[in-house]
Specification:
Shape: globular
Radius of gyration: 25 Å
InterPro entries: Peptidase_U32 (IPR001539), RNA/ubiquinone_mod_enzymes (IPR051454)
Largest sheet: 8 strands, parallel, barrel
Number of strands: 28
Protein name: U32 family peptidase
Number of helices: 20
Helix content: 25-40%
Length: about 650
């Protein structure tokens, strides 16, 4: 089955959560169906969902008999144990011959190459593909289709599709996320349940209040976005050149999904038959009546702002008609001495004598912090590509000034997490001109590796590359990265197994308040359009910083120079008591996330870590004399097994 408009194929892609649902959906008006198998996909939370090996074989036969396509999701991050399981599973899928696999982890691409498999590969939305260079890089690695970033507007998609010639897949209906794909670590830090490994506990659906400037604002569910709804904009989707129109809903029931797919199918057929006389609204009222959440076109036509936030019962904290909640506000666990001793023992068993003393790196947010890091002789200084307001981005003159005084400290220039074509244009001009006095680049996305690997600057990989296993680490190293930052979501067992298998230089974030969420959605807009309902000061950060508050704590949210929001830990990550044992795992560098500290606070933190690395911390003092600046200390994901 295939549809064409002006010679361009259009595919309606439907989800199925179980074999029973698949049987009904494949008989509906879709052109292709996607589902997960028994392992290694992003929908592993609900018992009884996903298809068995036998059901996959039967589903493929049914679909291909109807001339429809099947895509199997193998789209979560792999632990070292998962890598071994994936070998057999990928071999099975290669022999079963689905029309493609939808993947997130670079390890899948490496396994396919290593095993000589020929099954086609599509890049999942969890790869967060958002620029032309990323598409080119994935094409070079054998990917034949890209699911675009959720935040991509149709005009950008049109441009990228035309320039690259790559098939693009775009979400047109269903549950969306307020955070950039694979850039949400909240669930893993609080529950040990990784959103990038198919086990998200949905902290974005909690009931929050917003605080800023000494006032409380009635935001309620400020991260709970509406469902995507592009039914009335099919002409614009088709005009943009999108190949595949993707419906979200692998957890939805059969009757709902069949009705939804048939409505979209009928609309596409009607438009192809008579584009001039096309009625956009034929099934709109019925779809609205049967909605699970309210509707939005999300980022398809620009930033939606507060219009994208859901107020409807399901999709806020109450996920079901029974009023059941998916999870409730939960604080990050406090660092405990008992757990620290357990972790030290576990790390010591896995470790060995370190070959060299690990380095200390510090990421800063302004020139005063940068000068302090150099003054204290830290090994590496990172200048971020995303700078928190009210500080401003580092200028070329700032870089030259720091380069002149850096001494033995290595200076790295960071890139923005999300790089548009404009960003590449700006950084091209900066990096291809006169030689900068920097020692390398901090790389945040696959496209930047491709673009700048010939620029003559060493490259190291940042946290959000989500390196979770030795295969993905090896692939990135093969592309030119000299050092990689370990995924912040690793539990203790995964961390120990990964470091044992990976021979590449690794960096670990050991202190500070890293971003739990990175989003295009501007939470500060709430304070600009809503009237306050109470007065209350922030507890741990200054009042000009926006805070998301629950009864379990306050998470500060900083806005960067691009208007993107970074939701941070309420507590501070602190691995100071375990540095010696972590060094035994071969960690090359430890990083302090220093952006939110005053210079005096940062001075104390750097001094404590330098003392620990130099072996001069008193053994009886677990925290080297440090006291928390914010709501306490936490071990993040490492406290979970």
């Amino acid at each position: 089955m295939a549809r064409f408009f002006n010679g361009k194929e259009i595919e309606l892609l439907a989800p199925a959560g179980t074999f029973d649902i698949f049987q009904a959906v494949v008989e509906s008006g879709c052109d292709a169906v996607y589902f997960g198998g028994p392992v290694l996909n992003m929908r592993m939370m609900r018992k009884g969902y996903n298809l068995s090996h036998e059901e996959i074989i039967e589903a493929l036969a049914m679909a291909h008999k109807l001339d429809k396509k099947v895509y199997v999701t193998v789209n979560n991050l792999f632990s070292e144990d998962d890598v071994e399981e994936a070998r057999a599973y990928l071999q099975f899928l290669d022999e079963a011959r689905p029309d493609a696999l939808i993947v997130q982890d670079m390890a899948v691409l490496e396994l396919i190459r290593e095993m000589g498999l020929t099954v086609p590969v599509h890049a999942s939305v969890m790869m967060n593909v958002h620029n032309l260079e990323m598409i080119y890089a994935l094409r070079d690695l054998g990917v034949s289709r890209v699911v675009t970033s959720r935040e991509m507007d149709l005009q950008t998609a049109k441009l990228l599709g035309q320039k690259s010639g790559m098939e693009l897949e775009y979400f047109v209906h269903g549950d969306m996320c307020s955070v950039h794909g694979a850039n949400c670590y909240f669930s893993s830090q609080v529950f040990g349940m990784s959103s990038n490994r198919g086990k998200c506990m949905k902290p974005c659906r909690w009931d929050y209040r917003i605080k800023r400037d000494g006032y409380v604002f009635p935001a309620e569910y400020p991260l709970a976005v509406k469902d995507m709804f592009m039914y009335e904009n099919l002409p614009e989707l088709i005009e943009s050149g999108i190949t595949s129109f993707k419906i979200e809903g692998r957890m939805r029931d059969k009757e709902f999904m069949v009705s939804l797919v048939n409505s979209y199918s009928d609309a596409i057929d009607r438009y192809i038959e008579d584009p001039i006389g096309f009625d956009r609204t034929v099934d709109s009222k019925e779809l609205y009546k049967n909605r699970k959440r309210d509707f939005s076109t999300a980022y398809a036509f620009g930033k939606p702002g507060l219009a994208n936030i859901n107020r409807r019962y399901e999709g806020t904290g109450k996920f079901y008609s029974t009023g059941k909640v998916f999870s409730t506000p939960t604080a990050e666990r406090e660092l405990s001495e008992a757990r620290v001793l357990e972790l030290r023992e576990r790390l010591a068993r896995a470790g060995k004598a370190p070959e060299a003393k690990p380095e200390l790196a510090v990421r800063v947010n302004n020139m005063a912090q940068a000068r302090l890091v150099i003054e204290m002789g830290a090994d590496s200084l990172y200048l971020p590509g995303d700078v928190f307001e009210p500080d401003r981005p580092f200028t070329k003159q700032d870089i030259k000034e720091l380069g002149a005084i850096k001494g033995q400290t290595k200076l790295y220039l960071g890139l923005p997490r999300m790089m548009t074509e404009l960003h590449f244009n700006q950084y091209d001009h900066l990096l291809n001109g006169e030689r900068l006095p920097i020692d390398g680049l901090m790389i945040t996305n696959l496209g930047a590796i491709r673009r700048y690997r010939a620029a003559g600057y060493p490259m190291i990989g940042d946290v959000n590359l989500n390196v979770y296993n030795h295969l993905s680490a090896g692939l990135y190293a093969g592309l030119g990265l000299e050092k990689l930052t370990v995924s912040p979501e690793m539990t203790m067992e995964h961390f120990a197994a990964f470091t044992a298998r990976c021979d590449l230089p690794l960096e670990v974030v050991v202190h500070g308040t890293p971003a739990l969420m990175y989003m295009e959605h501007d939470l500060y807009e709430n304070t600009e359009v809503m009237e306050p309902i109470a007065e209350e000061d922030n507890r741990y950060v200054s009042n000009d910083v926006l805070v998301l508050k629950t009864d379990k704590g306050e998470n500060p949210v900083y806005r960067d120079q691009y208007g993107r929001c970074h939701l941070l830990f309420s507590k501070e990550l602190c691995y100071l008591p375990m540095l010696k044992e972590m060094s035994g795992l071969g960690i090359a560098s430890f990083r302090i996330e220093g952006a939110t500290y005053s210079t005096e606070e940062l001075r104390a933190i750097i001094a404590a870590y330098q003392a620990a690395l130099g072996g001069t911390n008193p053994q009886e003092d677990l925290l080297g004399g440090l006291t928390p600046v914010y709501a306490g200390y936490t071990l993040g994901s490492l406290q979970f097994n």
